[in-house]
Prior knowledge:
The protein has helices at 3-15, 26-40, 89-98, 107-127, 170-192, 206-226, and strands at 48-53, 57-59, 65-73, 133-136, 141-144, 152-159. By secondary structure, it is an alpha+beta fold. The protein has a three-stranded antiparallel sheet, with no helix packed on it. Strand 4 (133-136) and strand 5 form a beta hairpin. The longest helix is centred in the C-terminal third of the chain and has 23 residues, at 170-192. It is elongated. It starts with a helix and ends in a 10-residue tail after the last helix.
Amino acid sequence: MKLQDLVDEIKLEVFACGILESELDDSNIKSVIQKEIRELERYWDESTFITVPFASCIDTTNFEHVSIVNIFRASGYGGADEATGMVDPVWAQQWMVFSNLGTMYNLQDYLLNFAAWNTMSQIRNTMSSELGFEEDRHANKLYIHANSYPSRITIEYIPKINDIEEIKSSYWIDVLQKLCVGMIKVVIGRIRTRAKQSGALWEQDGDTLLAEGLAELKEQREKLEENDALCAPLKK
Length: 236
């Protein structure tokens, strides 16, 4: 969705496509949208992936993100390990079994070798965490520990939202729209209740809009907090 499309939908819902009087112009509404995008980042949990050359310390100065979720090897133990040249015995045996000349001969030996190899990997990981990472947000550095050094590493992260067009999910578009509608009603309600007319034949709907907006914002925020992904890192 484009920014102007969301502006038009908000005007449709709150101001009946401009038929009702509005104290806000498009630039004011866009400011509210940007404010709510920033609030949405607290709950945003859709991760994306990027593969980069491996380094024990990666500079994240130009890497806009809310948090880093996980780090993976770009290639697994399918064949020779990039650093040690070790071959996964089960991976090697499967090609022998399923080839035209393949047999089950010595498969038990391969499985026993794999069990020993896997046990050694687990012991090694208890002594030093494989692909453990720590991020220094102040220095814009990402530190990665690896037992063997791959040529490339894949980072799973929560991206920072700078523009509405970066939001691809219809679920999050709907959440953003509801937050914006509630905040617009609060803003209009504040404006219309700033001064009260005495002895007028009619009254503004400021109190109604203010109450509606506060209730809608509260409802959306409660839903977001209840459904917040607890498996995602805390966003500092």
